[in-house]
Amino acid sequence: MKIITISREFGSGGREIGKRLADVLGFDYYDKEIITQIAQNKKMDENYIENMLENQGWRTIPLNFRTSFSGLSMQSLQVEMLLEQRNVIEEIAKAGKNCVIVGRSADEILEDCNPLNIFICADLESKIKRSIERAPEGENLSEKEIRRKMRQVDKNRARTREIISGSPWGNRGTYHLTVNTSSWHIKELTNAIADFAESFFNRTKV
Fold first, then answer.
1. Which domains does the chain have, with CATH numbers?
2. Which of 27, 43, 104, 141 is the residue whose CA sits 20 to 30 A from 198?
3. What is the per-residue pLDDT across 100-129, written as a single tens digit (0 to 9) for each?
4. Quick check: pTM over 0.70?
């Protein structure tokens, strides 16, 4: 089984790279599909769960619990959703199929599966440009609003990572490959990453 996890800065193109990489390699792809599964398991609205996990779910959870959730009140819906997300990701791995998983600290959760862990980043100008070009229909945020959204999303990702593992989000020592998408065409860059992935999984283990 080969697993690739992709962590990414907001606006860096990490989600697109993940989808393209899965297509190139013939792997299964998981991103919002994880939210869909949680919603089905919990019989809850997908948008509510996504907002809980990605946007503002961790404001009340103290960081000092790190990898142990035993000290947190299970009355907290936030914690319940995080634990369910972990369960879904672990079930994906148990299925034994090659896959790409975007975000959700999958690299930490599936550490024992020896995944290829990739971090996608870009310079600020490139991220703003991409955010404008790929904005959902009807969304017309100003550059200032995009900067604010970018800071908030990345802050939430870093906080979630801290809660799960105690390790800093974006720490280069945590990933096998860090990719800066600035000034790259994503399609071309994806092919290069696919070559690296194949070498990673085919390398001779000493």
1. 3-198 (3.40.50.300)
2. 104
3. 999 999 999 999 999 999 999 999 999 999
4. yes
